[in-house]
Every structure is written in structure tokens, then in C-alpha cells.
Amino acid sequence: KKVENLETAILNETLPSTPAIYFLWENDCLIYVGRSVGLLQRMQCDDHKYINQPQNKYISYIDCKSYKETVNLEKKYIRKLIPIVPSLINNCVVAKKVKRDLGLDK
């Protein structure tokens, strides 16, 4: 699912409060892949460093049945996307391990 106006979705609380994998986009470039127990709460969180200007960004997301499913899917997507999406700025533990495993951490 795609949410074009992230700022409005956060303000109106129209994002789901369920587990999800999300893809954060800026100017049609994928910049981040993440997971959350509750997508709305994650987007509302002040410490999410990639949401500092929500008016310039949008997200797409995949609903998940459980947090365990989000962990597996996040890893799958990061592994698949890091080598081919130069705009991806993930620097989480999963991304660091994938970069290391693929020899992209140099």
C-alpha cells in the first residue's frame, strides 16, 4: 500500500497500528526499509531520524501478521535492495550485516 501524503497520514492517524514492513521514499528514491510493531506509532515517533520532513516523503508498506514476520521480511528486502539501490541509507544492524556479508562495507 502506498501513502502519498505522509504528513497528513501521521496527523490524521490513518496508518495501521499493526506490524508492517515499510519503505520510505524521498523524491521517488527509496531511502529506507524498516519494520515496526505498529506503523502509525513508528511514524509518530520523534526519534525516527528519516521522518524529520514528512512533507517531502511518502511510504509504502506491507501488512504483516506478526513481528516475527516483519523481522524476516525486513532482512529479505534489505538483502535484495542494498546492492541495487544506491539511495538506500539503512544503517541498522541488519543492513550492516548484509553489507558486510556482501563485501559492501568498505
Major beta sheet, strand line-up? 1-4-2-3
Q: Sketch the major β-sheet.
A: 4 strands, antiparallel
Radius of gyration: 13 Å
Binned strand content: 15-25%
Quaternary structure classification: single chain
Helix content: 25-40%
Structural class: alpha+beta
Which outline best applies?
Answer: globular
Note the gap between the termini. 34 Å
User: Helix count?
Assistant: 4
Mean pLDDT: 83
| Low-confidence runs of at least 5 consecutive residues | none
SSE pattern: EHEEHEHH
Number of separate strands:
4
Short structural description:
The protein has 106 residues and is of the alpha+beta class.
Describe the structure.
With 106 residues, the chain is of the alpha+beta class. The protein contains 4 helices and 4 strands, in the order E-H-E-E-H-E-H-H. The chain has helices at 6-11, 39-44, 67-81, 93-102; strands at residues 2-3, 20-26, 29-36, 57-63. Strands 1-4-2-3 form a 4-stranded antiparallel sheet. Helix 3 packs parallel to helix 4 (93-102). The mean pLDDT is 83.
